[in-house]
Amino acid sequence: MSEGPSAVPSENLPAQWQHLWRDILTDLRDVFDVHFVCATFSYHLARHTGASALVAVADTQAKCYDVWLNEPSGRATQMRWLNAEAGLEPLLALSGPTRLDKLERPAAEVIGGRVWLLAKRRLLVAPLPREERLYSAHPPALLALLDPTAQPALDDLLREATSLMIVFLDRAALRQEVDRRTVEFAVISDISRALSSTLNIQQIYQLLTGPIRQTLNVETLSIGLIEPVTGDIVFVERLLGPMFERLPPIRLKRGQGIAGWVAEHKEPVIITDAYSDQRFFSGVDRRSGFRTHSMICIPLQVDERTIGILQAINRQFGRFSDHDLQLMQALGGPLAAAIENANLHADVLAEKRRVETLFASMSDGLATVNGDGIITRVNGAFASMLDSEIDDVVNRLLHERVRPKQGDLQKVVARLLAGAEESVQLATDLLRDDGHVLPVLISGAPVFNDAGAIREAILVFSDLTQIREVERMRDDLFQGIIHELRTPLATILMYSRLLREGRAQPDKAERFLGVIERESDRLQRMVRQMLDLAKLEAREMQRSAEPVWLNPLFDETLPPLAERAVQKGLLFRQRIESDLPPVMGNQDIYDMVLKNLVDNAIKFTPSGSVQVMARRDNGTVLIEISDDGIGIPAEAMSNLFKRFYRTQTAVERGIAGTGLGLYMVKENLRNYNGHIAVQSTLGKGTTFTVRLPVAQI
């Protein structure tokens, strides 16, 4: 590499040219502007040579030449010539100062150029030699004298002038490069600092758009993030520019396009002509109407894991350089880290919201207690257990707000906070603010911080009211089952013994066998009901849905029930439409529902009538079972469909039952989108209404 031309003119130049050098050096001593350098040379060359002096410097980005023309009179003109009209390319290819006489008719491209037209008789032109530099070299430039007079050593003067001008142009170019890189460094530093201080993904994108697009001088900038599951690249539309605003989300399949290639190979690329690159995917251009020419695309990586790509598309002037790539890569690291941190922060926030939602929505009461025994947080269920408000519980001492009747809760929590227990349980009764007592099971565990130290204790309060009620009902059920089983078993045993011992008269034997058969059927129904309950609770009841024709079901199920009603002295009526549409469900289930409801009507009607009606009604089949029976007390209506529930009226009248029938009816109907309702007047009768959706066949 050359050491660069000297700023000292040759000793062979006449003294008048020495003055030219001193004037130029004086004017440009502290100047680093290319335009001022060109204007100064044009001015002094014209003043000292007595000829019009022209300086032309190429603007490679704008594809034109900036031209300064000074006349000996002092008149100065600045122009801008397009490359096509300037006619400077053949002149710039000359090896040194060259004289061109119009009478000699040089090349056609010279004759047609604007610089040729400015001269009347002759030109003296000298291109500035271009040499490799550590920095960006000066652009192509030309010195020219128009119609110079015959003066000695004029060619040497231009040769020396071009050497001197190179010094100043290179110096200006170096200063420009230093200034540009200083600005770029400041931009990178500002962006990196800003990226490291935000966890908002939208702010990250906003930080990038303006500064990078301006620094790189590009039409559009885009970020594509890799979906972890599919490997597809999904682009951030808001960075793409206005031409993409009305497009649906832009997505590239794994490995598709230049972006996909960069993501897979983890290598940056500079593309000069996108459409000549076989990796390029033109589908996005077709959808948007945008035309991609050149691009830089780099992978965004975190710990050697590629999370996306960053690409700049279409430099507005010139082509992308290696320096542009370096700038992109300098920003890629902070950008990838910022996106990763933002995503992690978003995941943490989402998990926090999920935990908070879970905390707030749990039916069990939750409370956290710190090392000072202060309640730091509770959910609504816990406050309701105390018949209080959350604000009245939080930041209060545990022993002041939670008053168990059994056990020392304060000591239990102290052991948790001291690390003496990994988990504890305490069954007790809590004294509520309203004076009532609530049975609860308190479960506790320590909560650790990131350092592994115990931060607080969490307590779970489970309401045992329902469990105790279920236990009570279960005990009642078992007592009822034992009672129900004892009676038919005793009857069956007694009559069996009479028959076996031959003590029954022949006319009574048939009656004894009938009793044994009826009581056996009763036992079988009870056992079947208990088995169905177990299956229902275990979610083993079949939910296979198929069209069920109700008319055959009524024809099969109702006659035995009608006979039972008649035997009891009741009037049994039925009004069934003859052409009921099919309903979706299960025939065995609907048979159980019908038998249960009609059997209850017969059982709870001492006298009067039982009626079964079925008809179409607004896309459903409406079934009503009505009776003139004892009715249902108003206070029992809310519990009627609960497990093991029996009305006090039924118990007092000694009407047999397990309290499971209506519960199983409702649960099974719900499995098939059916609905059941009840209306009743105590002492006058009850009507159950069932709606079943019509099958779409």
Per the principal axes of the C-alpha atoms, what is the gross shape?
elongated
Q: Provide the CATH superfamily of the largest domain.
A: GAF domain
Arithmetic mean of pLDDT: 80
| Total domain count | 5
Helical amount among residues, as a percent range? 40-55%
Number of helical segments with 4 or more residues: 20
- State the CATH topology of the largest domain: Beta-Lactamase
What does the main sheet amount to?
A: 6 strands, antiparallel
Low-confidence stretches: 1-6
In the CATH scheme, the class of the largest domain would be Alpha Beta
The class by helix and strand makeup works out as alpha+beta
Q: Walk across the major sheet and give the strand order.
A: 3-2-1-6-5-4
Task: Compose a concise summary of this entry.
The protein is of the alpha+beta class and 697 residues long. Helices cover 43% and strands 23% of the residues.
What does the model show?
By secondary structure, the chain is of the alpha+beta class. The protein has five domains: 15-176, Beta-Lactamase; 198-343, 2-Layer Sandwich (Beta-Lactamase), CATH 3.30.450; 360-461, PAS domain (Beta-Lactamase, 2-Layer Sandwich); 468-537, Helix Hairpins, CATH 1.10.287; 546-693, 2-Layer Sandwich (Heat Shock Protein 90), CATH 3.30.565. It is 43% helix and 23% strand. It is built from 20 helices and 24 strands. A six-stranded antiparallel β-sheet has the order 3-2-1-6-5-4. Strands 9-8-7-12-11-10 form a six-stranded antiparallel β-sheet, sandwiched between helices. The radius of gyration is 49 Å and the shape is elongated.
